[in-house]
Amino acid sequence: MATKMQMKTNVIRYGVAATTGLFCLAQAGNASAEVSDADFNALKSAVQQLGEEVQSLRQTNQIETQTHQADLQQIQELRSKLAETQQTAVEAKQKSDAVAEVQSQPPERAPIDEATVNHNFMMLGDAEFQYDKSSGQNGTFLLADFAPIFVYRGGDNILYEAGFDTFLGNNAPSSAGASTSFQLSFAQLDYVVNDYVTFVAGDMLLPLGTYSERSAGWLNKFPDNPLAVDALIPGTGVGTQLRGAIPLGQSGQFINYSVYGVNGESSADGTGNARALDLGGNVGQLSNGGIASLNGSPSGGGRLGYFVPFKPHYDLEVGVSGMAGQWDNTLDMVQSHVWSAGVLDAALHLGPNFEANGEYILTRYGSGDQGEVTQQGLFVQAGYRLAGLNLELPAINNIELVARYDAVHDGLNPRVERYTAGFIYYITNTLLFEGDYEFLHSPDPTQVDHMVLQLSYGF
Amino acid sequence: MKQIKFNRFSVPAGLAGVISAAWITSLAWLPAHADPPIAGTASTNSVAAAAPAATAVAASESHHLTGAELYSIHCNRCHPERYPTERTGAQWKTIMLHMQVRANIPVQQSKLILKYLQDNSGR
Fold it and tell me: Does ipTM come in above 0.85?
């Protein structure tokens, strides 16, 4: 730019010098001779022309200078814009770096979105495989049980749960092959009405004692049920129930209750004979397609429990429960016989490694052939996890030693007693390997001592 | 041995059950209890890691039990402990409803335990 300007200035200078030169020459000519008018006019117009040219060159120069000024300003603006852009780029990079950093970390746990979890279906349950060796028999492997539970939650307060039991049994000695039995063990709808009341309907697990509500292969400490639980009380009933828990103070104590009405017991053959008592058959649907309860009045029952935690892993729960109703399918209320049961249950934890629980069961029912039949049963069991010994041995912390005493006297047959001792090896918290030896004291020749190894899995 | 008599007076026991059920139903219309104060759950996360290992907590009247404490009180009573990481938040919601009904856990306690399980759940 500077050179261009200089050039322009030089041109002007030469122009002026040349004009002055011409003018002097003309004057010199004048000295010797008179200048003609024509020559003078020609010279005058040439000078004027040069003046105009100088003028226009000046203007051009001015414009050039202005343009230059504007250019400079523009450059300045561009520079500052560039700086801004660079700043933005740096910021953007910082931001993207921050994002990348956040993304490489686990995302912040967002609150559960109600819309996506309003309904939920799960298959839960357990499965058991056993090896059983009864004295005097061949040892055998068996699929003891595959017991899925289907659970469907609708919203916050409704749960539908249905549990099944699948067994595999051979058809020997009468025929070849094996058959599968598939049973509904319970199917109930739970509706949480408010903080203190839950309504239950269906084929419900009955809170007669706590055993039937709290059993599944991976949570039982033994591979089989207490004799009295199987023999004396129903595990389920078809009907409705109200249950709930009421906290006492802030220390975690509460009382819990349940009251229910169910179809109840019935007679296997329609008679009132003592051996015809059927604890689980009266489900409302008759074999001839009709729909009716087998007897005229439903059974009612309930449980009241009290739970007190002293501190985590130290607690006691005690409960008393009962159930009663007509059992013998007679429509004549005066002639009919009543079945009734009372159960006391208790569970105690002393630290994370010791647990003991048990139930005492008493039932009574009238019969046509044997008069009043009184039945009694009992089980007490305890478990101790060797982790409590604080031994520095690898496998030992996963072992729990267990022992149980149970007995039943059904009022019709001689009393049976059983002592069971065994262990549980926790492969994981839900995969358990159990081994037990059961000593039976029974007049029944089919009830003999036996050893059971069981693998049970909860899912 | 003297036996407790359950016989005749329990004839209408079915009815009695239904009547008491009806009585309890009337309780059903009680207003739902307000949520327990959240203050009690403030320490949930810090206690979380230690929860399975019996955080000894004095069960005093003035202290509101946290979700972590209630978890360690209840969740290995009936079966081996099930860890929060075993299930997702949505699954815990279903399982806690199952356990609340099955184990008769008070609703307010159940809510705190659910929060603890979800805060520490697997995904």
Answer: no
